[in-house]
Write a structure and sequence with these properties.
The protein has two helices and five strands, in the order βααββββ. With 98 residues, the chain is an alpha+beta fold. A five-stranded mixed sheet has the order 1-5-4-3-2. Helix 1 runs antiparallel to helix 2.
Amino acid sequence: MAELSLHPEALAELEAAIDWYQARSPDAAKKFADEVEHTLESIADQPKSFARYDDDHFFAILQRFPYSVVFRVHEGQLFIVAIAHSSRSPNYWRHRDK
């Protein structure tokens, strides 16, 4: 399993989404957090099995929520660039670097 780290803005996106769901339904917030956790575990297990976004990035689409996890792989390390809501502008996370 590869080492995984989150960009601070990706972590903020995750926390904001959990807070948003929590305000509406604690059950939905838990389901969202569980799905993100499961997706991150899948990424850590087999990162290159996910679709490519471009030459440097991959993405995983959550099944039950309108979010994608955008990440890159470099020298065996995984870097989560964004927890992106599907309504956000594409490529808004491009400026994020390690």
